[in-house]
């Protein structure tokens, strides 16, 4: 993707790759710490999609995997 953002008062743009990780809610903190530790950006974007926000079919599948 092409990202447009302000960094140190200047508008920047760069090519970036979006990566999705699917983890249980209890593992999000660990994953975030690992991303921050190894990511080359000073401030990487880390967003979480709540499982309740996905389509019903996937939600039911994911819930079944936790049992």
What does this structure look like?
The chain is of the alpha+beta class and 67 residues long. It has one domain. It is 31% helix and 18% strand. It contains two helices and two strands. The chain starts with a strand and ends with a helix. The model has no long low-confidence stretch (mean pLDDT 90).
Question: Helices, strands, pairings?
Answer:
Elements: E1 2-7, E2 10-15, H1 28-38, H2 56-65
Antiparallel strand pairs: 1-2
Total tally of structural domains = 1
Please report the total strand number as a whole number: 2
Q: Strand content of the residues, in percent? A: 15-25%
- Helical content band: 25-40%
Approximate shape: elongated
pLDDT averaged residue by residue: 90
Which structural category do the helix and sheet elements fall into? alpha+beta
Q: Order of helices and strands, N to C?
A: EEHH
Ranges with pLDDT <50 over ≥5 residues?
Answer: none
**Total count of helical runs of at least 4 residues:** 2
Spatial order of the strands forming the largest sheet: 1-2
